[in-house]
Amino acid sequence: xxxxxxxxxxxxxxxxxxxxxxxxxxxxxxxxxxxxxxxxxxxxxxxxxxxxxxxxxxxxxxxxxxxxxxxxxxxxxxxxxxxxxxxxxxxxxxxxxxxxxxxxxxxxxxxxxxxxxxxxxxxxxxxxxxxxxxxxxxxxxxxxxxxxxxxxxxxxxxxxxxxxxxxxxxxxxxxxxxxxxxxxxxxxxxxxxxxxxxxxxxxxxxxxxxxxxxxxxxxxxxxxxxxxxxxxxxxxxxxxxxxxxxxxxxxxxxxxxxxxxxxxxxxxxxxxxxxxxxxxxxxxxxxxxxxxxxxxxxxxxxxxxxxxxxxxxxxxxxxxxxxxxxxxxxxxxxxxxxxxxxxxxxxxxxxxxxxxxxxxxxxxxxxxxxxxxxxx
Length: 376
Description:
Layout: H1 5-16, E1 21-24, H2 26-32, E2 41-44, H3 48-54, E3 58-62, E4 67-72, E5 75-81, E6 83-85, E7 97-99, H4 103-107, E8 118-119, E9 126-127, H5 132-138, E10 140-141, H6 147-153, H7 156-168, E11 171-172, H8 174-182, H9 184-187, H10 192-203, H11 208-218, H12 220-225, H13 232-237, H14 243-251, H15 262-273, H16 282-292, H17 294-304, H18 309-315, H19 329-336, H20 342-357, H21 364-372
């Protein structure tokens, strides 16, 4: 495992100050799997004020929950105090946290055994009190201790179980799987933004069909969309960027429930509302491109008429919108012999209609000639 020097330096400083410190979470899981981790988090027996006292530059990013960010060698290193958690009152976050000096107490609060391991980067010591390494070998996603309790604490863990099983191509351990439907009442309390993020990660996986089967089997898909009639293989065949559109199309669901950005929601809504036209002569396709935009048209073609791809790319180089017209602003008004007003817009729409039929007309001279015989 290639550990960033900044992370090693923070670890060494904590150990040098007399505290215990370990890499925790996903980076340890990835290392045991033989993968190079992307993110590195440290957990320590030092309390937040003690961490702050060790380093010169610290940002108190989540100090109330024991997390601070150390600035080291130009990098941000997240350091969290070993902790246990009180009761979960909202199905998402603990009402209180208690700091500990015992790493095993910290690991006991985590969701799955494969995420409940710690590693000392200096010695290679692996702390694995719940059998995470064995579950990785067995390709199992298993809750730490009682799955009903784990999912009852945080409803998002139901989605995380599916996401890890999908991305890692693992099975969900039977008791853990059975606990998901029993805790859907807690899942419904989770903010849609968090559910959406887990769903998108699942849809992006090469094993997305497995994920959709699990979402359907556990009742999660119906809780999210109010429907579950999907063809997982059809979704899997689509490019990753279009799988959400295929899923929404199959479920007859609206994209606005997912709390995406306005641009993403609008794009998806157009994909769901539009279809590739039956008449596919160049003029008809140019009009279609002009009306719905090239981005939506290309995505629709990818889904429904991939043979049109190269042709649409060529047609997209033609003038398709008002801004593509060769006659603009003052020159257009001069040709009309008028100032700003409704007639200008009407003239632009007339010219665009002509150019969509014959793109070669899009020169200042040709457009002026067209306007000479035009009446608003």
